[in-house]
Request: fold
Amino acid sequence: MLAFVAAACAGVFVFREKIFKSSVSTRTNEVTSASGEQTPGKTQKPEKPAVVAPHASDANWMLTLGTNPIPGATVAGRIHGQDFIIERASFQNGSLTLRAGTRGAVEFGAFINFGGAQAESLSGQTINVMTNAEKAARVSFRWKDASGTVQKENYDDSYAMRLEFGALANNRLPGKIYLCTPDAEKSYLMGTFNADARKPRPKK
Reply:
C-alpha cells in the first residue's frame, strides 16, 4: 500500500513538472509577443511622407523655361506670398483646376483655361508658354488676403509655363506643370497632378 502511494505521488510530481514547464513556456511566448516583435505574415505599411511646400526662393521662380525636369512631387509652390499645396485637381469645360481643399468654391488655387478644349485633345500634349507670347491660355489665381477676403488675378500673357499632359485614361488626366507669373510676390507652381476629367452629367 505504501509503495502504491509513493508511486502515485511520484507520478503527480512528474506530471506537475510538465504542467509547470508548459505554463512557463506559454507565459514566455506571451511576454515575447507583448514586447512588440512582429509575428510572421504581418507587415506594417510605411507612412507616406507629408507634402511640404517649397521654400520661398527666387531659385524656384524663373520667367524662362529651362530644360530641367519638373519635380515628381505633388504640385506645390506659392500664390501671392502664401504657401500652396494641391489637394485636388480637375479638368472640366476646358479648364484645369489646381486647388487647396476638395469641395465648395475655390478660395485658394489656380485655373488654367484652354478656351473650351477637351481633355481628349490635350492628352499626351506638351504646352510651352513664353513670356513674349502675345496671347496664351488664361491663368487665374485665387487666394485670401489678411482680412479673409478672396482675391483674384488673371494673366493672359507675360508668364512662363511648361505643361506636360500624360495619356487620358479612366477619366483621369495626369500631368506635370511648371508655372511662374509676373506678380510682385513671384508666384509659382511646380510638380505633378492627376486631374479628374469626368464630364459633368447633362442637365435634365
Remarks:
- The longest strand covers residues 172-180.
- Residues 135 and 157 are 6 Å apart (CA to CA).
- The two ends are 100 Å apart (CA to CA).
- The chain is about 20% helix and 30% strand.
